[in-house]
Amino acid sequence: MVVSLPSLAFLGAGSMGGAILHGVVASGAQVDGGIVVTNRSHEKADALASLSGVRSVALVDDPDGNRDAAASARIVLVGVKPAMVPDLLREIAPALRPDAIVVSLAAGVTLATFAESLGADAHVIRSMPNTPSTVRRGVTGLAAGAAATAEDVTLVRALFETVGAVIEVPESQIDALSTISGSGPAYVFLLIEEFTKAAVGKGFSEADARLMAEQTFIGATALLEASGEEPAELRRRVTSPKGTTERAVAVLQDAGLDDVFARATDAALARARELAAGA
């Protein structure tokens, strides 16, 4: 089924904004009124100009590009760096449509920051997507501001569902969510890196090591999705009593993986709170 979305403006399309933009285009969604995206440089703007149904604006050529883009869209996605958000909001505030929904893609920027610049009546939703949205396998957390309506949330949910799964949470949980699904792809890539190094250390070529490591992760997650089983159950099926896998899993468990992941996500959460405080 083709999803229908209202007009979209992406103000800044860096790694996260670009991931969502590419994912929406790849989904084949029908965007009534089209998509406009702004970036500062010619290089970034040119890289997005070939996307179907997208008008890409370089702000060096069009200083009013952000205001014009915001004025044209029902859903305005703010994808600039966190430190740049307040200035951007003040710039676009007079241009926003009365029915505009402003969606934050900026890590650590609170709904209160948006309300300060746009007013308490602004319809704002804070999002926390992840980069697998590029291939439509993302996870996005949504936290609605006080003035956002149920219809607003439904529209924004439909937008992000074109690029993956969506979880609605109170804003108090959005930073915690970011430490799992937001940062999570980096953890997976790190594990694949280390798994590849282990294979190289056992005499395999770099190419064969990468193939084994990457396809094992891809295959295991595909099996998990297809089976509907709990990860612990699938792990038990691979782990024969007194076998090689049991010995390897014991080493990993003895290394305190539970504590490592808890401390890693705690560190990410602490940093998210520092960003929210302007540190």
UniProtKB/TrEMBL annotation:
Superkingdom classification of source: Bacteria
Which ranges carry the Pyrroline-5-carboxylate reductase dimerisation domain? 171-275
Q: Which PROSITE patterns match?
A: P5CR
Question: Which Gene Ontology terms cover its molecular function?
Answer: pyrroline-5-carboxylate reductase activity
* Span of domain Pyrroline-5-carboxylate reductase catalytic N-terminal: 8-108
Cite a single Pfam family from the UniProt record: F420_oxidored
Q: Which UniProt keywords apply?
A: Amino-acid biosynthesis, Cytoplasm, NADP, Oxidoreductase, Proline biosynthesis
Q: What is its EC number?
A: 1.5.1.2
Substrates-to-products reaction catalysed = L-proline + NADP(+) = (S)-1-pyrroline-5-carboxylate + NADPH + 2 H(+); L-proline + NAD(+) = (S)-1-pyrroline-5-carboxylate + NADH + 2 H(+)
Major location (coarse): cytoplasm
Pathway involvement of the protein, from the record: Amino-acid biosynthesis; L-proline biosynthesis; L-proline from L-glutamate 5-semialdehyde: step 1/1
User: Where in or outside the cell?
Assistant: Cytoplasm
Q: Which HAMAP family did the record assign?
A: P5C_reductase
Q: Which PANTHER family match?
A: PYRROLINE-5-CARBOXYLATE REDUCTASE (PTHR11645), PYRROLINE-5-CARBOXYLATE REDUCTASE 3 (PTHR11645:SF0)
- The family this protein is said to belong to: Belongs to the pyrroline-5-carboxylate reductase family.
Role played? Catalyzes the reduction of 1-pyrroline-5-carboxylate (PCA) to L-proline.
Q: What is this protein called?
A: Pyrroline-5-carboxylate reductase
